[in-house]
Amino acid sequence: MNANRRGRRARLATALLVVFGLTAAACGDDDDTSTEAEDTAAVSETTAAGAAETTAAGTEAPDGTEAPDGTAAAGGINLEEAAAIVEEFSVRPTVIPNTAPIEGEIPTGKSIYFISCGAPACEAEIPILQEAADILEWELTAISTDPTKPEQITAAWDRVVNEAPDAVLYTATPRSQVATQFDAAVANGTVPIACCTTDPPEDGLAYVISTPEQTGELGSIIAAWVVNDAAGEPAHSLYLDLPDFPILSALRTDYEASLGELCEPCTNDVIEFGLTDLATASDQVVSYLRSNPDVKYVIQSTDSTFSLPAALEAAGLEDIRIFGEGPTSATLADIDAGRQAGTMAFAFWEVMFSMMDAAARTFVGQELEFPAPPNWILTAGNFPTGVDTFPLVEDVVEQYTALWGK
Questions:
Q1: Do residues 245 and 277 make contact, with C-beta atoms less than 8 angstroms apart?
Q2: DSSP state, 174?
Q3: Of 73, 143, 268, 376, whose CB neighbour count within 10 A is largest?
Q4: Torsion angles phi and psi, residue 170, rounded to 5
Q5: pLDDT confidence of 344, banded at 50, 70, 90?
Q6: Residue 77 DSSP label
């Protein structure tokens, strides 16, 4: 187990001690789509290997002997730890990511550009950034793009270079994709601030939130939810991956690793979708589930791209438990109606306000904080209804306004 995962596992063990985009087309009902699914998407199976780690001393292993360092869960399934993780992250967060007040007066009149990745989740970030810009008395310019057209990303960065704003915020774009424009923007004095990217904050990139490690934490929590929901039975899941967004690979890696650590007999299959495959994604998933009836859990790497409940219902696959992350308003409606089991909330307000906080700290010359966004498991009945997106921390705006001295 690597050092980052050991750190995450240590935090999860501590929790036990305190007891705690783009929408895929609706599917057809054609049994002959299984060949198409195998031809157009890469499918792999991973057996969750390795015994589940132990956390509570003094209990017996399956063979009746006392485990020397903790619980040897029955059948290799550590249900107790999974339940503790789920309990911890089912509670609504109350604290914003940043904690240190801004030292000195934040300058007004700054020009901030935001390059949206184009998916519905990214577009939903624009009004949140505008709310923060209004508080800080900055001018926000949002540039929307189409994630299936890389040339639009390049054009957006060309505009940043030509117009030289004080800072540019962006999501999900690898730095290597716009390396020339990125370096030119930095040379112009523009401060780049990123979300949801695998690039580290170095060589001109001032700030990154929703890093691979932070995104991977979501995968660990989702794995715990699956194990807990399966209630002691070996779960077989299907993970829907989008390799075009490299940040999501961290979520998949940690999901598979944590599933193996919590549940030795659990298994996971993977379908990788390219952005051009999304029109037939639902058909492919339906076909795969029909061919693999033992799969009872579908994990969506992002809810803003996949939309499966209607497709599975139309296909008569009503015993499949869907869980994702980054929900849209449609996702929340599906959860509220029982068509999707749950999701990991994306901390829209907390992430966007933290990015603006990083810009403010840069402008006053203050050392940056690099906090993780809060996590919250959403299931039917535990989240506000009637809204498209909502803050995880209910008074996030008030807390940041105080932090900024506004």
A1: no
A2: -
A3: 73
A4: -150, 160
A5: very high
A6: B
- Which DSSP helix (H) or strand (E) runs through 46? strand 42-47
Sign of the alpha-carbon dihedral angle for 119, 121, 125, 128: positive
Beta strand segments in 242-362, E: 267-272, 297-300, 321-325, 342-344
The structure tokens listed for 167 are 């800072």
Distance CA 297, CA 318 (A): 11
First to last CA, the chain: 45
Q: What's the token pair of residue 147?
A: 């994630």
At residue 310, what is the residue type? A
E-strand ranges in 95-206 read: 111-115, 139-143, 167-171, 191-195
* Other Cβ atoms within 10 Å of 300 Cβ, number: 28
Evaluate whether 16 touches 228 at the Cβ level (below 8 Å): no
Residue 246: strand, helix, or coil: coil
Q: Give the model confidence (pLDDT) of 107-154 as tens digits.
A: 999 999 999 988 777 888 999 999 999 999 999 999 999 878 899 999
Q: What is the per-residue pLDDT across 30-51, written as a single tens digit (0 to 9) for each?
A: 444 333 334 444 454 443 333 2
394-400 average pLDDT score: 98
Q: Are 371 and 403 in contact (CB under 8 A)?
A: no
Amino acid identity of residue 84, one-letter, is A
Q: Which amino acid, residue 315? A: A
Cα–Cα distance measured from residue 350 to residue 60, given in angstroms and rounded to the nearest whole number: 43
Residue found by looking up tokens 């985009």 in the block? 21
Integer angstrom CA distances of residue 221 from 1, 218, 256, 396: 17, 5, 11, 23
* Pairwise CA distance, residues 191 & 164, whole Å: 10
Burial of 29 (0-12, 13-18, 19+ CB in 10 A): exposed
